[in-house]
Amino acid sequence: LGIGYESILRLFGLVAIHYQEAIPIAALGLCVNLVSAWLLHDDHNDDHDHGHHGHSHHHDTKMASSE
Q: How far apart are CA 26 and CA 30, in angstroms?
């Protein structure tokens, strides 16, 4: 709630951005995100079928006749 309140205040009372401080922090955040994505990336090839358990995905789309 506090962050939302501060956000609304800043929308109506614009504040100058201190780029000398913001750019290094943004670059650090980008690096942390890239390292996190790299660490969480599923890069191994272990023959996982990811829940498909060998059944066919072919479905008959013909509808039965009501005669």
A: 6
* pTM across the whole model: 0.45
How far apart (Å, rounded) are the C-alpha atoms in residues 34 and 29? 9
The pair of structure tokens assigned to 13 is 């009372």
**CA dihedral sign of residues 9, 11, 12, 13:** positive
What's the rounded Cα separation, in Å, for the pair 33 and 16?
A: 26
d(CA 41, CA 34): 10
- pLDDT tens-digit profile, the chain (67 residues): 999 999 999 899 888 889 999 999 999 999 999 999 999 987 665 555 556 555 555 555 555 555 5
